[in-house]
Amino acid sequence: MNWSAFEGLLNGVNKYSTAFGRIWLSLVFIFRLLVYVVAAERVWSDDHKDFDCNTRQPGCTNVCFDHFFPVSHIRLWALQLILVTCPSLLVIMHVAYREAKEQRLREAGGDSYRHIYTNPGKKRGGLWWTYLLSLIFKAGVDMVFLYIFYRFYRNYTLPRVVKCELRPCPNVVDCYISRPTEKTIFTLFMVTTTCVCIVLSLIEATYLVGKRCHEC
Question: Quaternary structure per UniProt (predicted)?
Answer without folding.
Answer: A connexon is composed of a hexamer of connexins.
